[in-house]
Design goal:
- This is Alpha-type protein kinase domain-containing protein.
- Keywords: Disulfide bond, Immunoglobulin domain, Kinase, Serine/threonine-protein kinase, Transferase.
- It is a single chain.
- By secondary structure, the chain is α+β, with helices and mostly antiparallel strands.
- The chain folds into two domains: 151 residues, Protein kinase-like fold (Alpha-Beta Barrel), CATH 3.20.200.10; 62 residues, no CATH class.
- The radius of gyration is 39 Å and the shape is elongated.
């Protein structure tokens, strides 16, 4: 399966002339040996040359990758490409080989059974890759997304949405705002018929008193 992914990766790399040489995962064949106690085995081509380990994972689940030479950078780009292509569900944890011929590939999946694979990795491995992967020149040529975009954004105040903090600030408290501008209070203050009648009666009594006082002042004294 990884060999097929690598073919797609190589096809996308060939579109860009500046990418140069690409990687190739050599095929592995399954053979049947009926006379042997282990009837099935896998064979692959013999690689001659300096054997290198481009990225590995130790027994504690810590990823190690080389990012110095052009070949090592392209292996890191291949890791990034597969991670993005599978929407973060598949991660290559080991790439070894001779020059561009890659073998002994190991992968882990975020959920068991993804694409029929049984190797399920811990969430820490995926988080570790996202945190420590450094995009290089070839990641940019393929237009791969930066894995740490969310870490580069400025952090927001965690207390800005806290109800406790809002109550401490007072003026910004949603509860105080609701209490100060309650629709029920506005309806009671503006649309209550009892308050309207009391207000009208008060105005009428005040006008009657004013008229009486004016009449008393206008009556001449009788001697």
């Amino acid at each position: 399966m990884i060999r097929e992914y690598c073919k797609i990766f190589a096809a996308e790399a060939r579109v860009n002339e500046n990418f140069g040489f690409s990687l190739e995962v050599i095929p592995r064949y399954l053979i049947h040996r009926p006379a042997n106690s282990v009837p099935y085995a896998t064979v692959e081509a013999d690689l001659t040359g300096d054997f290198g380990k481009y990225c590995t994972i130790d027994l504690k689940g810590k990823l190690f990758s080389q990012n110095n030479s052009e070949l090592e950078q392209k292996c890191c780009t291949f890791q990034h490409w597969i991670h993005q292509w599978t929407h973060g569900n598949l991660l290559v944890t080991q790439l070894e080989g001779v020059e561009t011929k890659i073998t002994n590939v190991k992968v882990v999946t975020k959920s068991k059974g993804y694409q029929g694979l049984t190797e399920c990795g811990s969430p820490e491995v995926f988080d570790q890759f996202v945190t420590h992967h450094q995009c290089n020149y070839y990641c940019g040529l393929l237009g791969l997304w930066a894995l740490k975009t969310d870490l580069q954004q400025p952090a927001k105040m965690k207390g800005s949405r806290s109800p406790l903090l809002n109550r401490k600030l007072g003026s910004n408290s949603p509860q105080l705002q609701r209490k100060g501008h309650s629709p029920q209070m506005s309806r009671k203050a503006n649309n209550s018929p009892k308050i309207a009648r009391k207000t009208q009666e008060t105005e009428d009594s005040n006008s009657v008193r004013n008229q009486k006082s004016a009449e008393s002042l206008s009556v001449p004294e009788l001697r």
